[in-house]
Amino acid sequence: MLLRPGRDGCSLAVTTRQDLNGSVFRHYRVTQREQGGYIIDVENPIPCSSLHDVIDALVEKTAGTLQPFLLEEPYEENITYVSSNDENGERMLHTAPSSPLPRAPALPPKQDRLSSKPLPRSPAPDRRILTTAVPSSPTNPMRRLILSPSPLTQTLNEELKLKLEMRRTSQE
Fold this sequence. Notes:
By secondary structure, this protein is an alpha+beta fold.
């Protein structure tokens, strides 16, 4: 199980992976309740008082089959991937080339709001500059690009910090 931000930017998601003739992924929405706590949004919603309780509930409901993903290894230093040869079915592990990342394009200069001159066009036809306001609809995918971290993410961070502090004090 992996607890992560939800795609709507307002909720969280628990993603699970199990093996059944290949990988089976499931995603469960977790929303924060106005009166505090969280709800696992399934057919019969499961109320939980904390994010830790969300994970505990899923472990309990699955009789321990689902377990939280704990990263015990260091982060990878190279991008690797597995590919299959269509002719013989052989699978191989590849390491992607580690070329430097391309530089981000420079932002256009700020334009005076009173000026009526249009922004200069980019020489590349596939690059566009967003010049209109982004509607604040929660379903608009562009909304996520301009928002600061969601309150759920901040709550998650605060909860994790509190748990780490409690572990440190119990170990001393």
